[in-house]
Amino acid sequence: MNGEIVERVRRSTVQVETPGDGLGSGSGVIVGPAATVVTNAHVARSQAAKVHLWDGRVVDAYVVKKHARRDLAELRIDIPGLLALPMADSDRLRPGHLVVAVGNPLGFQGAASAGVVRAVGPVQGLGSQPWVQASVRLAPGNSGGPLANANGELVGINTMVLSHGGLGLAIPSRAVNEFLVRPPPPRLGVSVRSVKRGLLLLEVESGAAAEQASLRAGDILVGADGRRFTSPDALPDVIERGGAVRLQFLRGSRDRVREVTVRL
User: Fold this and answer.
1) Tens-place pLDDT, residues 11-33
2) Given 12, 52, 71, 173, which residue is catalytic?
3) Among 149, 161, 180, 205, which one has the highest count of C-beta atoms within 10 angstroms of its own C-beta?
4) Is 42 a catalytic site residue?
5) Where are the domains of the chain?
6) Does residue 55 have an active-site annotation?
7) pLDDT of residue 264
8) Contacts of 229 (CB under 8 A, 6+ apart)
9) Among 27, 90, 143, 173, which one carries the catalytic annotation?
10) Choice among 25, 27, 42, 67 that is catalytic
11) What is the CATH architecture of 90-179?
12) Contact present, 190 and 203 (Cβ < 8 Å)
């Protein structure tokens, strides 16, 4: 991969700053003709953000939609003529293909790390969703930035490091494209962690369906519509069907039931 291709990827990579996070909160990549920026949902934690372009300009951005389960967010900025990164089909990736990750690790803007694809597919412990697994060095601040192939085309959105293997994990471009063209999925508006009894609510978003159903941080979701939750994937499976959902949860030692109408 030559320096000219890496430079093109760098010029399509942005730094995403959300209120309260400070500089270096994450990265993003410009895609498509309409000043669209894709990043991770965990980077775009609020509805507004500042986007730092490669040439030093700082512009306002707003969140168009998010997909918490796939950890993707679409941002829009009102700046014409930006250099968008073309998107390749991640299904064509094979082990050994050369890739480069670009982002803003630890505040170093436009840092690049080259490596090779090791595998494309599900990762144990992370559900059934596929990941691009590559030997690229990622650090805090890389999240949301592009993983590009040897032609300088987007093949993934860098998201995390596989702790037991040291590999960088990226959301495949096929999933990114599907996210961009489809309407946003229904949302409950919570973040959860798997515990012995079920799913512990770590955070409930203000104004979301969960808050309107009087759910609180600290509640433990144990099931929905009479079925017990056995993994964190079980909750999105229920929510993405939409409509009315009867949630069973624990608050202290008491079992309770709420009927939640999930909103788009």
Assistant:
1) 999 999 987 655 447 999 999 87
2) 71
3) 149
4) yes
5) 3-77, 90-179, 190-262
6) no
7) 41
8) 198, 199, 221, 222, 223, 235
9) 143
10) 42
11) Beta Barrel (2.40)
12) yes
